[in-house]
Amino acid sequence: MSEKKDQPSSLGNVSGHFSGRFSEPVTELVKRFTASVTFDKRMAAVDIQGSLAHARMLAKQGIIATKDLAEIERGMAAISAEIAAGTFDWRVDLEDVHMNIESRLIAAIGDAGKRLHTGRSRNDQVATDIRLWLRGEIDGLIGLLRAMQLALVGLAEKHTDTIMPGFTHLQVAQPVTFGHHIMAYVEMLARDEARMVDCRKRVNRLPLGAAALAGTSYPIDREFVAKELGFDGVCENSLDAVSDRDFAIEFVSAAALVMTHLSRFSEELIIWMSQSVGFINLPDRFCYSSSIMPQKKNPDVPELIRGKTGRVNGHLVALLTLMKGQPLAYNKDNQEDKEPLFDTVDTIRDSLTIMADLAAAIEVRPERMRAAVLRGFATATDLADYLVKKGLAFRDAHEAVARAVRDAEKSGKDLAELPLETLCGYSGLVGEDVYAVLAPEGSAASRNHIGGTAPRQVRAAVEQARKRLN
Ligand code: ARG
Q1: Residue 443 is part of which domain span?
Q2: Which end of the chain is more exposed for a tag (fewer CB within 10 A), N or C?
Q3: Within 10 Å of residue 181's Cβ, how many Cβ atoms?
């Protein structure tokens, strides 16, 4: 970006101030401190889109002439081309994206350009820009959330029958299928998707027309502008329209939950890939080695996603804090909404894109998973349930199995490896059929109800998710 000092601009003597009101310019530091163009130029395309809709409305209402509108459209097309080509001269002394573009328009087309800002303020302009920009990003993110779900569904489908230990307290608890475990994340991401869809409804309202704070005396048509820009309706109160950023907070909150889910998944991948667990391997393209230990293959990508979750959580707190002390209506504090919002979008977009690719490429090691189930007495509950079904009270069954586990642990054997007469020693109710429930496959298959880990249920869940996602 080239920064030209104190050049006369088409907005008058702009060096941090508008024209004749002030008798001294702001210092260079204050100029830089208050400017936002270095980051808000990212909204240039929607800023132009919003300006064109506003201009069309002004012309339709007879507030500006039709030939002014034609000039504005011509000028904006040229500016769009300059921005796309990277030749647009962004100037810090013009403060923000709005004044940079307006100034350039006036330089290009003269008086018609000076009429664009009629009945409008940067306060409703910037609120409109953020909403337009965020709406587009939300649509992209919804697509990514769905792609990630599809990747997980594909993985789950391959492993509806793969037995692994289910954990509580990170201790082996009961056998589950790997497909069931993966489908848990599909549920989480489906809720994340729903939150984005819901948040979009509140983002998609038009602030323009609120002007600085109180509305405008020109005979504007807000509904027309809303329609032009694809908004579902207008913000109903001008003071609220220019001042609240709750829609952005809501979005970042939904994004923080997306990151929370990706972070939990990352944590599991890291544990699963560790040599002492060895449930999975990740393809080399997601891993890095060590600068000193030549044997290392580290899961850097999941670790970074886990780490970046902190950044998005931080943005949520930043935005909540930004809002909490502001009296109505607009305050410059709100300029601070953009960087957290932009970075949140960038972070979850990259994280989701990478994670969808990674999820589809996980190399699963079913033999390691099954061996871990057998080491952890994962079917102890199944034995207790077996005894209950034969007539024992649950607490007595629990106690009998606890004794069996204690003895089996001493002899280094799984319950399924104990001979029938040994098992009978804990309860006379044990029969030959006990081995069916002690096998992890039998245990998993017996949890055959909606939400259960039985392969049949996992296949049904996969099918349902596919139907929803296609
Ligand atoms: N750059 C400003 C922002 O991001 C635009 C609105 C400025 N409005 C004002 N009254 N200073 O909020």
Answers
A1: 375-469
A2: C
A3: 20
Establish whether residue 128 lines the binding site of ligand 1, counting it when its CB lies within 6 angstroms of any ligand atom.
no
CA–CA separation, 237 and 136 (whole Å): 24
Same domain, 81 and 201: no
137 burial type by CB count under 10 A (0-12 exposed, 13-18 middle, 19+ buried): buried
What DSSP element (H or E) covers 50? helix 44-60
Choosing from 11, 239, 332, 339 the residue with most ligand 1 atoms within 8 A of its CB, the one to mutate for a pocket test is 332
Mean residue pLDDT of the chain comes to 95
The fraction of the chain above a pLDDT of 90, given in percent, is 91
Q: Is the CB of 123 under 6 A from ligand 1?
A: yes
- CA 263 distance to own-chain centroid: 11
Q: Which helix (H) or strand (E) holds 253?
A: helix 246-273
Q: For ligand 1, atom 3, name the residue with the nearest CA.
A: 335
257 and 291 inside one domain? yes
**Residue 441 CA to ligand 1 centre (angstroms):** 63
Evaluate if residue 360 carries a pLDDT over 80.
yes
Q: Is the pLDDT of residue 15 over 50?
A: no
Decide if pLDDT at 159 tops 80: yes
Ligand 1 pocket, residue 238 CB under 6 Å: no
Enumerate the β-bridge partners of residue 206: 234
Q: Is 290 a catalytic residue?
A: yes
Are 130 and 268 found together in one domain? yes
Q: Look at residue 44 and tell me whether its pLDDT is greater than 90.
A: yes
